[in-house]
Amino acid sequence: MILHIDPSNGIPIYEQIVRQVKFAIANGALQVAEHVPSVRDMARISAVNPNTVVRAYRELQNDGILKSIRGTGLAVTAEAPTLCRRIRLEMIQQRLRSVIEEAAQNQVDWDEIRQLVEREIQHQSERSRESKS
Amino acid sequence: MILHIDPSNGIPIYEQIVRQVKFAIANGALQVAEHVPSVRDMARISAVNPNTVVRAYRELQNDGILKSIRGTGLAVTAEAPTLCRRIRLEMIQQRLRSVIEEAAQNQVDWDEIRQLVEREIQHQSERSRESKS
Amino acid sequence: MILHIDPSNGIPIYEQIVRQVKFAIANGALQVAEHVPSVRDMARISAVNPNTVVRAYRELQNDGILKSIRGTGLAVTAEAPTLCRRIRLEMIQQRLRSVIEEAAQNQVDWDEIRQLVEREIQHQSERSRESKS
Amino acid sequence: MILHIDPSNGIPIYEQIVRQVKFAIANGALQVAEHVPSVRDMARISAVNPNTVVRAYRELQNDGILKSIRGTGLAVTAEAPTLCRRIRLEMIQQRLRSVIEEAAQNQVDWDEIRQLVEREIQHQSERSRESKS
DNA sequence: GTGGTCTAGACCACG
DNA sequence: GTGGTCTAGACCACC
Q1: What does pTM read for this prediction?
Q2: Is C10 left (phi over 0), alpha (psi -120 to 50) or beta?
Q3: Residues of chain B whose pLDDT is less than 70?
Q4: FRET partner for B59 with CA separation of 20 to 30 A, picked from B96, C46, C104, D93?
Q5: Which residue's CA is nearest to the C1' of nucleotide F6?
Q6: Domain map of chain D by residue range?
Q7: How far is C66 from chain B (nearest CA, A)?
């Protein structure tokens, strides 16, 4: 469970934690009933304030992803993988929709959008290949 | 000059205004030397706080898109169309990049992204066809 | 909008705020679209830390009771009265169920429970009559 | 000596144990001088952390309900039945009071409360009838 | 002015 | 050890 937190990202830190935990579960990196790192550990690992972690974990509890086991920590719920896999696509889809909506309202051609998408995919592919090497 | 403002969009309202004015100029919906609606009018039309319009217009002046004509209001500069046409795709691309970046970080397959894009394009096409009829 | 906060109540302060706002809406003391006191005001009024109020208000937003209007404050949603009226009874019912469940599991007679309830109602009636006089 | 522990109940687990032991003594399910299950056994049976059982038993010793018999475990004291029978209704009443108090503070009608009570009694009756059959 | 986020540090109940 | 709550005070973006 390693997190990549970027404090100057626009996206709030607690939200970054929430998302990455969700993705980790969707990917199977975190298994059902497994414990998420303790608040204090996660705070230390990610170099953020414990309260920020608390908030992220609370959000995950509200979403039914984690549940608190008194005195022993927070565990991944049985429904979490299903939820997270669904959420993962919804989060991307939602942002994608908003971009494409803007494009549509401003008469950007569909093919232009497709080109932009391909260019970005290309761009990302190269970056990920670099980081592997 | 009709604006589509979505207050619960994540994107600040003033920025939504800025972007849509830029798009309007790029599309030719706003011509050089044409006056943009007065702060008061724009605020009323778009159901937005006048201060927010002020801020958007200030931003547009800083970008060299609008210039103030003493006593008569704000007009589109001569350079604006060139500028706006140049950044038209960049504005979309910038947002697209951040979405795809997140997807990439979370091991979403490229083809899955392409599918989502196509689905959204489909979705938008239908909406625009409906609104025309 | 006056709150009665008891910091040594067992019930967390933020939860007390949440409940009382919900009850105020259920009772009609807070109307739809009306603004709830600003975070800072509520903090001053209730003599609690602003962050505690923030948390309570955030919870109310998650429940769909309040919605944030950028830069202008938090307003009661249109669905709030319905939700709150439902919630009001549910909260009481839930606690009642838990008590009665315990009683049942320990072979307390139904009539004994009814007597206890009547005694408490009596007790409360007198207290409220006193406070009015 | 079977315990019904609900870890997500609000009431701390150790307190649930304490209450249920007291009820058991009041009902005669646990007799004077009878030994309560060992910490280890009770922890295993009820799927609870041994430390939690320790704490519950300590509380019961402080209340004079249990006393430690060197080398053999904890036994019900001679005074326990009297004590427990006396507080049997009080334990229920205490919780009942706090519920009704809240209801009162929020202008829930007395008759509405009586209805909820009857509904819950009905509910419990059915459940217990089912479990017998 | 508004809400939103974050840090720092304290205290508590629970296991 | 765990999570949960609270305070205090700071900074930010937005209206």
Answers
A1: 0.84
A2: left
A3: 132-133
A4: B96
A5: C52
A6: 13-81, 94-132
A7: 14
